[in-house]
Specification:
This protein is an alpha+beta fold and about 375 residues long. The chain contains 14 helices and 13 strands. Among the domains are: about 90 residues, Arc Repressor Mutant, subunit A, CATH 1.10.10; about 110 residues, Aminopeptidase (3-Layer(aba) Sandwich), CATH 3.40.630.
Length: about 375
């Protein structure tokens, strides 16, 4: 097996996608999955089930959205920013503190900071308890006051990003804000890490989640020469200790691989199809997809309709250890129907693929609350021709 082929299997196995229920089943498996892959990105698009639930269902076969809600309520997860809005393990709270400190000092999340409004909001939350943005809306007729919904929403988000408020949970999809001292468990370490410790956390999180990394993937969407230098130093420490090794990748880049995983036999793949979220941890870094999986993926809901190739919300199709194509579908929940708009297969597949895809589509439909699937038989016939 080639080095790239082995890295593919290592990465997918570490992500919990190479075999069924690597993390187990149920609520505790959901927590184990999040702790292992480091975060789950939150997204509002609901063409199919939202990204955070989709990512977890892809790893825990009996996952239910209530598992995530329960873990948040039990304060085992917290909401903040990873490279995007995410749920993260509560044990990692202190590694969110550097960004909070930066938001509180060097920059604002929004252009205009209204200190008076911020104080007003903090005072209300302190006195009244958890509040949502809608609780600050002025419903009186006439001219809106300075605390109306939009400025208040921006202030809530600013206070959230700088750590003066936390998200206790969500009602529907609305954030419920509260004071950190009423959200954080007593056991949480609230000491801000230094640069070296923070860089080490990013290195370890990426290597645990994917089995290998590049400097660029570790510092993904994080700016600053000092941080990149600290990451390089932490990688060298692990190379010197023998815990990671290096391999050459495309474009003269260097891959850092967990030595134990690379020196062991590559994990086996099986004839399983997974329909993944566009925001799945395994595909969110598009460069990794191109270099390791030969899969040039882009979500097209942000692309003008005339320029779309695969559909508004095309989803990656993973088969065995390769991304082989994309499926564009939409869940019509009121009708309990999953509409399959198109299936495009881009890589060669074997005789087991068509049945595996149909089984995956059926499971995906049920996950989306849909008992009916449009054009499933036609899809299978198309696949036979494309194979």
């Amino acid at each position: 097996m080639s080095t790239i082929g082995k890295l593919r299997r290592i990465a997918l196995n570490q992500q919990g996608l190479l075999k069924t229920d690597k993390f187990g089943r149920g609520k505790q498996a959901t927590l184990r999955a999040i702790e292992h892959i480091g975060y789950v990105q939150i997204d509002t698009i609901s063409v199919v089930e939202r990204a955070h639930h989709h990512v977890l269902w892809s790893r825990v076969s009996n996952y239910q959205p209530k598992f995530l809600d329960q873990l948040v309520k039990e304060r085992k997860l917290f909401e903040y920013w990873f490279h995007a809005a995410s749920w993260l393990p509560m044990r990692d709270f202190r590694f969110a503190l550097p960004r909070m400190a930066k938001m509180n000092g060097e920059r604002d999340w929004f252009k205009n900071r209204d200190s008076k409004l911020n104080r007003h909001i903090l005072e209300r939350v302190r006195e009244e308890g958890p509040l949502r943005a809608r609780d600050f809306e002025d419903t009186r007729k006439g001219k809106k006051q300075w605390w109306d919904w939009k400025p208040a929403k921006q202030a809530l988000e600013q206070l959230f990003m700088q750590g003066e408020l936390m998200v206790r949970g969500r009602e529907g999809f609305q954030k419920v804000y509260d004071l950190p001292e009423r959200v954080l468990p007593d056991w949480v370490d609230t000491r801000e890490p230094g640069m070296d410790e923070y860089a080490g956390h990013l290195v370890d999180t990426t290597l645990r989640a994917h089995g290998f990394a590049t400097l660029k993937s570790i510092s993904y969407l994080r700016k600053g020469r000092l941080l990149r230098d600290a990451i390089r130093e932490q990688l060298q420490v692990r190379i010197d200790a023998g815990s990671i090794t290096t391999v050459p990748l495309k474009n003269n880049s260097l891959g850092y691989v967990v030595a134990e995983l690379f020196e062991s036999r590559a994990p086996r793949s099986s004839a399983i199809v997974r329909i993944l979220s566009p925001f799945d941890n395994a595909v969110i870094q598009r460069e990794r997809g191109r270099d390791i999986f030969d899969f040039d993926y882009q979500i097209e809901c942000y692309v003008p309709e005339a320029k779309r190739q695969f559909g508004y919300f095309c989803l990656p199709i993973l088969y065995r250890d390769r991304f082989v194509g994309r499926i564009d579908c939409k869940a019509h929940r009121s009708e309990k129907r999953l509409d399959i708009k198109s299936v495009v297969i881009e890589h060669q597949v074997d005789d087991e693929f068509a049945d595996a895809l149909c089984h995956s589509i059926q499971s995906f439909a049920l996950f989306n609350g849909c008992g009916e699937i449009s054009d499933l038989d036609v899809t299978a016939k198309i696949l036979q021709r494309e194979k």
